[in-house]
Specification:
There is one protein chain. This protein is an alpha+beta fold. The protein has one domain. 17% of the residues lie in helices and 48% in strands. The chain has three helices and nine strands. Strands 2-1-9-5-4 form a five-stranded antiparallel sheet. The termini are far apart.
């Protein structure tokens, strides 16, 4: 009996260790501390199964506005301000929180998890998410053409995902008004 208990405990520990490993990406994104004094970035991630049943809800622990630049490193100054000022991402609203006025935009993205986003664990495919990156995609004049520019990033506590799950990310961006 002790051998079975030991085997089960070892299996559980190995599963937890392997399941909590995340894929590291080589992409590095720059954050401008001065820019982030004017913005607050929030992310809520909701996971539902293929039948629409709620599996988890997680909120960001930290979020940033990234320094926007083309793939060759040329920076795009004031892209985020342009997107908000011209209601390109979403229509802005004026809100007041603790006597501070903000311009607020909210938008969401949805992704169905497929096998390419998961890691093999024995015969099962498993995955984790611990935040996300939102990119603005558009046609830029001149040599750049159509590009997707990393714009916002947020981290959340780890979320377990599986094939067929639907991950909905609700973004809220607040910009302090002068």
């Amino acid at each position: 009996m002790k051998k079975i208990e030991g085997l089960m405990l070892s299996t559980i520990i190995i599963t937890l260790i392997v399941g909590s490993a995340q894929v590291a990406t080589a992409e590095k994104f720059n954050v401008d501390p001065d820019l982030n004094l004017r913005y607050e970035v929030y992310l809520q991630s909701v996971v539902r199964d293929a039948q629409g049943q709620l599996l988890s809800v997680s909120e960001s622990t930290v979020g940033w506005v990234l320094i926007t630049s083309f793939s060759d490193g040329v920076q795009i100054p004031d892209l985020v301000d342009f997107l908000i000022d011209n209601n390109i991402i979403a229509e802005k609203k004026i809100i007041t929180i603790d006597n501070v006025k903000y311009e607020k935009i909210q938008f969401q993205t949805e992704k169905v998890i497929d096998h390419r986003m998961l890691t093999s664990l024995g015969t099962a495919k498993v995955g984790m998410s611990s935040g996300t990156l939102w990119k603005f995609c558009g046609d830029f004049k001149g040599e750049y053409g159509h590009q997707c520019i990393p714009t916002f990033k947020a981290k959340t506590p780890q979320i377990h995902i599986a094939e067929g799950n639907v991950l909905t990310n609700q973004w809220t961006i607040l910009r302090v008004m002068n």
